[in-house]
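ok so i was messing around last nite and threw this chain in just to see what happens. nothing serious, just curious
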Amino acid sequence: QVQLVESGGGLVQAGGSLRLSCAASGSIFSIADMGWYRQAPGKQRELVAGITTGGTTNYADSVKGRFTISRDNAKNTVYLQMNSLKFEDTAVYYCRLEYYGAYDMDYWGKGTLVTVSS
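result:
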């Protein structure tokens, strides 16, 4: 069983920055792909950014150039640095761990709320 705990959300003015963290329990983190997703009120959950075990990253078009995903395998933690925040970035942000091998793992955190005031 893996537990993911997000932190770092809060209220910020448009143009500001926040750094989200997601700490994972267990020993699977370093061989798992990690992702940040978000869900705004009335909308479907969407991928914001992902990072593979090898460090390859991908981003939603809406956040490219503003958000940066990174991971620290020694700390079992994935980060999302969010700069130049916009009102439309307001959402609950979720962390996801995926591992597909001899056994499959797909875990989600409970989310952290990011509110951007205009």
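not much to say yet. The mean pLDDT is 96.
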